[in-house]
């Protein structure tokens, strides 16, 4: 086993993982960037990692004492894979784990909520990040972003519901602090942006910024579930459609001060993210 402490970032090429790697590397930390294809990531050591291939786990963990965990995408029971990995991590010397979850999934809830519940009993120092929906869903390679670019439409079952959308850069900033501060949070952290917005508000903001009309098409829960089932496992599609239905009922109509408390600065607004992301991509 190597002796140099390493921070392992699982999902290192993803929306929050890539940004977390960049922050840690720029601060001089030794980072191991884990992804299925072990893609090169600036300032980090690439390593092959697949949640469903246990043969990749020990090599990724070798020498690591802290890990950032992005659950396997589309898995309605990630605990089956993640809990054995966390047991292995502890046996190999990992002392701190930061888990990416969701504001919509409480401890003991479905999917990653079961990993959240197990984490404090598996790793001495820990944090669970529970961000609201990503602002980058509307600017990146998410279904909403593609639909905006291709059709000028955002399709949801959220109705008039409002969400405290959060910038992935703010999530990464909190993740980096949770991984490197002298004391681990040892709690869950609900992350939001500075305001709540409906999907009608999002459509209007994108329309104003791009000059191209974007509309919010309102679907029923059943329509949303069936649409998602074309791309995702049935159980996960039903879960996501159910989250939309929860938003319609007000479950995500909140803001928190977590980003400000942890990072010392306010979270970014949606308009500022539009300006940064879309001008960069354009």
TrEMBL record:
Q: Which InterPro entries match?
A: Ergot_Alk_Oxidoreductase, NAD(P)-bd_dom, NAD(P)-bd_dom_sf
Query: Ranges for the NAD(P)-binding domain?
Result: 11-107
> Which PANTHER family does this entry report, sorted A to Z?
PRESTALK A DIFFERENTIATION PROTEIN A (PTHR43162:SF1), PTHR43162
What is the protein name for this chain? NAD-dependent epimerase/dehydratase
Q: Which organism is it from?
A: Streptomyces pratensis (strain ATCC 33331 / IAF-45CD)
């Amino acid at each position: 086993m190597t002796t140099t402490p390493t921070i392992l970032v699982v999902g290192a090429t993803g929306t929050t993982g890539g940004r977390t790697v960049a922050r840690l590397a720029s601060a001089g930390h030794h980072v191991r960037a884990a992804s299925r294809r072990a893609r090169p990531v600036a300032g980090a050591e690439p390593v092959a990692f697949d949640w469903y291939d246990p043969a990749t786990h020990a090599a990724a963990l070798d020498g690591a004492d802290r890990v950032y965990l992005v659950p396997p995408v589309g898995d309605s029971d990630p605990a089956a894979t993640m809990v054995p990995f966390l047991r292995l991590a502890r046996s190999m010397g990992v002392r701190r784990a930061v888990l990416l979850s969701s504001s919509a999934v409480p401890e003991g809830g479905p999917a990653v909520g079961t990993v959240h519940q197990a984490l404090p009993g598996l790793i001495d120092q820990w944090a669970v990040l529970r961000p609201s929906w990503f602002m980058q869903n509307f600017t990146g390679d998410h279904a909403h972003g593609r639909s905006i670019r291709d059709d000028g439409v955002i399709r949801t079952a959220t109705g008039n519901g409002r969400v405290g959308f959060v910038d992935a850069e703010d999530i990464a900033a909190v993740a980096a602090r949770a991984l490197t501060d002298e004391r681990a949070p040892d709690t869950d952290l609900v992350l939001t942006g500075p305001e709540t917005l409906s999907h009608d508000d999002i459509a209007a903001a994108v329309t104003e910024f791009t000059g191209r009309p974007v509309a919010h098409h309102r679907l029923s829960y059943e329509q949303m579930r069936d649409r998602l089932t074309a791309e995702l496992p049935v159980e996960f599609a039903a879960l996501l459609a159910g989250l939309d239905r929860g938003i319609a009922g007000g479950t995500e109509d909140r803001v928190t001060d977590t980003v400000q408390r942890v990072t010392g600065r306010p979270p970014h607004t949606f308009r500022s993210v539009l300006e940064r992301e879309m001008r960069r991509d354009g």
